[in-house]
Structure formats: C-alpha cells, structure tokens
Amino acid sequence: MKTNKRITMIILLILVVIGGTGCMSSEGNILNYLEGKYGEKFAVEGKQKGSLLFPNMYGRDKLYVYPEGKPEQIFEAGQSQSKEIHYYDGYISAIWGDELTKSLNDQLEKYLPKESIYRVFVNSSEDDARFKDLSLYDYIKNENNKLMVVLEVAIRTDGEPNLDEYSTGLYQAFEVIKNLQTKYCTLSVGFVDKSEDKMADYIRTSNVNNLPWSNLDAQVYGYLMVDDRYNFHSPEELMKYYKVAEE
To answer: Which of 54, 88, 199, 201 could in theory staple to 154 by disulfide, Cβ–Cβ 3.0 to 4.6 A?
Structure first.
C-alpha cells in the first residue's frame, strides 16, 4: 500500500510539473501578454520563481521587465495567485513615474543637493492599456487621484551627514510632490557614503527591488521615511523622523 501511495504521489507531481510548464514557459507567457497588450517589445531584467506546488498560496513566477531601450521604466509583471489565468503588470505606473521624474526635474533640482540621485515613482492599480499615452496630470484631473507618488532620493555624503544642510531642501522637495494633489505621497531619503557606486541602479529599481535603506548592502549613515500622514510643518520637524542606520 505504501508503494502504491508513493507511486501515486510521483505521478501527481509529474502532472503538476507538466501542467505548470505547459507549451510555453511562464516567462514566454508573460512576455506574450505584455506585447499583445501594449504592442511593444519588452526586455527581461530579472525573474522571481513562484511556488510550483502551491502557486495559489505562495504566488507564481514574476518578471522584472522594461520596454526595450528604456530600462528606467522597469516594472513587475506576472500571473495572479488565483486559479484562473490572469496576468497583471505595472507598466502604466512605470510610464507615469518616468513622466513625473522628467517633468519635475527642474523643480526638484532646485532643492535637492547636487550629489543626490533621485527618481519619482507612481504606485497605482491602473493597468488599462488605454491610459498608456495619457499624461498622469490629465489622469489625476479627469479620472481620479487615488494613487501614490513616491520621491526616492539617495544623498551621497562624505561621512555622517549634517542634517541642517539638507532639511530645507528636502522639505521643499516633498512640497513639490504634495502639490500634485494625489491621495497619497511619500518621501524616502537615504544618506549614503559618496564612495558607493551602485546607488543609481538602486534608485532606478526601487519600485521593484523591495530593499529598504536599512537592509541595503552599502554604507548607509541614516534614512528618512515620511508620508502625507506625518504631522510636520517645517524643515526642523521633518528631520525629527531621521533614523541613524544600525551597523
């Protein structure tokens, strides 16, 4: 009886593997979905394997992709955890984040130090392809403002930062983001040693890498994380939320 059960389990596992792979890899399926939906070619930067046996519980494969030639628009795409085949992607948010990064560049550079690297991200559940060519400003005005805008900044310093040097600029930079009138907004700032050379790539991928400043494999002196729920009305009050990184 034990032998029969073992054989049955092996057969079930084989069926699961065959059913999970199908005629095309999950990567190919996701790329086909994206290219059919948006009429563009996409490049794969990374992949996270899902659970083969329990995808509905632990998730399925996901890709980190960007439209060919535009690595700054990296986003996540994959298949949902539900039993029905349903794909999701964050391309619209990536387009809007890129739009804001460019359109707010002149304003933000007035307030952020020259040694900083920054990017603006949009977190939205919107994935309708018809919004691909719609400006975020028009979406906020004519559709809805229920999304989050995140300003992610890496400030490279020569040793421990003097917070007084950055408080006013960061406060004003956050005001720029708040003035977009979205429902949610966040400021995330890390103070890192100027010798770190991977900050540009970290900032570029911040919307998908899920690496907080505290877990970054780099010399981080401290960080500042605030959003529109925090009650501060001056640069000095803002910097009270600064946290020294643990060694």
So the answer is: 199
